[in-house]
Design goal:
Layout: H1 4-13, H2 20-31, E1 37-38, H3 39-49, H4 55-67, E2 71-75, E3 81-85, E4 92-96, E5 102-105, E6 127-130, H5 133-149
Helix pairs in contact: 2-3, 3-4
Length: about 150
């Protein structure tokens, strides 16, 4: 992953000032335990460092990061938008609907997809929703306990 300084340099090269808010947002991204986070989650992390910040400031700055190709906005499962810093490595996501764990996978199905003549893809995303092995195991154990009680 790129360093915070590299992201800061990208912003400066594109004419943006390094505000306290932008720096706090980049810090929050760097401190994330998962590769994806909602605007609300990033706001909460930023508010720990900068208690006076408001949600709309975080949201506007996330839009700037997306617009400038520093972050990616991902929509899935008819829920909130998720954000991640673009680290230069192309990847996709496996998302557990049970616990919310996100795993990055480097396999890309675009290379295997037949393209209609004349179509030129410029971007894509691929998220797979399912259950991680821990959630599957927990569900099986709960099902087994329920059967034993019946």
């Amino acid at each position: 992953m790129q360093s915070k300084n590299e992201f800061i340099e990208q912003l400066k090269q594109r004419g943006y000032k390094l505000t306290k808010q932008r720096q706090a947002i980049l810090n929050a991204f760097m401190d994330l335990e998962k590769p994806l986070a909602t605007a609300q989650h990033i706001f909460e992390k930023v508010a720990e460092i900068n208690p006076g910040i408001n949600f709309s400031t975080v949201y506007r700055n996330l839009d700037v990061l997306v617009q400038e190709g520093i972050a990616r906005k991902i929509m899935f499962d008819q829920g909130a938008a998720y954000y991640e810093l673009i680290d230069g490595k192309h990847h996709h996501h496996l998302i557990c609907k049970g616990c919310g764990k996100v795993q990055c996978v480097e396999y890309c199905p675009l290379g295997d997809m037949p393209m209609k003549e004349g179509f030129v893809p410029i971007d894509h995303s691929f998220e797979v929703l399912g259950f991680c092995k821990e959630c599957v195991r927990a569900k099986l154990m709960n099902d087994e306990r329920r059967r034993e009680r019946e």
